[in-house]
Amino acid sequence: MDSISVSEVTVIGRTHLGFMHSFRQPFSGVPMSPKFCSSRVEGPRAISSSDTNTKSQFAYGERIAATSSDSGYKINGVNLKSRTLISSVKEGLLLDANDDAYGGVIVDPEKLPSLMMFCGFLQEGFEYHHAEKGYVMLTYWIPEEEPSMLPANASHQVGVGGFVLNQHKEVLVVQEKYCAPSITGLWKLPTGFINESEEIFSGAVREVKEETGVDTEFLEVIAFRHAHNVAFEKSDLFFICMLRPLSDKIIIDSLEIKAAKWMPLVEFVEQPMIREDKMFQRVIEICEARLSHRYCGLSPHQLVSTFDGKPSSLYYNVVDDDHDPSNSNCNTDFL
Amino acid sequence: MDSISVSEVTVIGRTHLGFMHSFRQPFSGVPMSPKFCSSRVEGPRAISSSDTNTKSQFAYGERIAATSSDSGYKINGVNLKSRTLISSVKEGLLLDANDDAYGGVIVDPEKLPSLMMFCGFLQEGFEYHHAEKGYVMLTYWIPEEEPSMLPANASHQVGVGGFVLNQHKEVLVVQEKYCAPSITGLWKLPTGFINESEEIFSGAVREVKEETGVDTEFLEVIAFRHAHNVAFEKSDLFFICMLRPLSDKIIIDSLEIKAAKWMPLVEFVEQPMIREDKMFQRVIEICEARLSHRYCGLSPHQLVSTFDGKPSSLYYNVVDDDHDPSNSNCNTDFL
């Protein structure tokens, strides 16, 4: 990135009824109900996300907003696809823009003034919403009498840990290269963050493979941990996954891992750090209960919901449709 | 925020061994192993997070980095507390800074040049990492021969849905004010995002209370859904929660909700949109199985792990320690 420009800035605003009426009517009979709208202004990606080319011009200096037709992701009750531009800052200047599919606008980044406009938005009271490689989003909520209804920035990181046990009741463990002095020398389960848009089940298999070289098959999420104020004050969801080993040869990732091995489960549990850790104790009890069919974890099922048409994974455990209690635990044998 | 300044900018870099040695030795015998370090430079909050006042000066124009003692959050295998400053951009200029607890530095924002330095970082090849109200973080990964090991930005939003059934086998449902035309008129479960640092179990209770006015008690997460490219291209984790009603009077949130009511479960399931939705069908089967003890969801247990000392919630279902299969489903009666 050579310099920051408004082509890297996104502006979100709640539609302003006063302007909306006079402004929207000529274009479309959009309902007058107030609602959240947003527009990313960041060059090709957003431009191409606009699927209409109706040219329109925006006198900016006034706050002008395009409302939105209801659409988009609904399962969490927030409309995340509708778009608008609140143009602010300098008087009199004109912005070229194209209407988008949601009654919003996509501004041609070529036509935007650069650095000063970015600062102008901040001076006007816009706030950072979020940033990713290549752009930063600014937001402004117009109605003073109402709390902001803009959807929040991503709030969580998602981690996975792999519990891999072989036929000899040995668990796959690693020693990390960079760890708190307090846990130096501890043999622990392979763990890591899942990648962008990665599934929990494939992320767990990948992390185990990367750190230890061992191929595995995903079985179940047996528990998950929710903690707060972790990375950059964000929250953390950590999924403990049971995996079945498909190979046993260990090849460690020397960047992150100091050592890896197959360790007898009894020995693993006997480590002082583990013995003194209530959470870890519980996790191991759960794994052992699962191995002897006294516990049932959640397995992923690929389902598309017509609510948003998105292919997704629904994690749940077996449903016993025969009313047979002996059926009510997972029957898959893990050993 | 009146203007953007480096007091709102954070710079992260991987320690540069060449400089690290000559630079760090005078201060502490930090191991020479390369590792991830970071430092937020954003005024009072970060300044006060520094717990040492050793003054030091940085000739900037060179890339200077402080390495880190291992510490901090380990469960996902990334050290998120260690800090460093890569100072870059202008030649010759000096920055006042204080060492922090992790071998990094906190720069006095009062002493920083503002806007041009921000742009300077971008011109130097720094990239946006993430932004929150009040600051934007820039990162730079020095080693060209190695992939970046900086932890990623938060990747997920977390939503909750509340399945609330009363003694008359009526489920608590709402109609949303702003929804896709395709689901207009649909009676659905109350849903929403959890707030920053909020628990799933309290978020579900809050959302139901906000949307419908009904008080509930959290029982179990019975399933969760993982979907991708949802809000701002982030992923979404949606937890379906069973709640027990503690009151029945309905008072709707007129901002988000058009209507709410207690609807006979049979009627709810008979809605065409629900009948045609495989995922929703499955979720309702699970809820019904749970009600008749043929299914077991996950309930939260407050546990502190010595790995990071964080109080957190571990979600798991009952472990039958008596090897009694009839014990292996959750025994709590929900009706």
From TrEMBL, chains A, B:
Keywords: Hydrolase, Magnesium, Metal-binding. InterPro entries: NUDIX_hydrolase-like_dom_sf, Nudix_hydrolase6-like, NUDIX_hydrolase_CS, NUDIX_hydrolase_dom, Pre-Nudix. It catalyses: NADH + H2O = reduced beta-nicotinamide D-ribonucleotide + AMP + 2 H(+); NAD(+) + H2O = beta-nicotinamide D-ribonucleotide + AMP + 2 H(+); ADP-D-ribose + H2O = D-ribose 5-phosphate + AMP + 2 H(+). Its EC number is 3.6.1.13, 3.6.1.22. The keyword Magnesium applies. Pfam families: NUDIX, Nudix_hydro. Its cofactor is Mg(2+). Mediates the hydrolysis of some nucleoside diphosphate derivatives, possibly using both NADH and ADP-ribose as substrates. PANTHER family: FI03680P (PTHR13994:SF13), NUDIX HYDROLASE RELATED (PTHR13994). This is Nudix hydrolase. It comes from Camelina sativa.
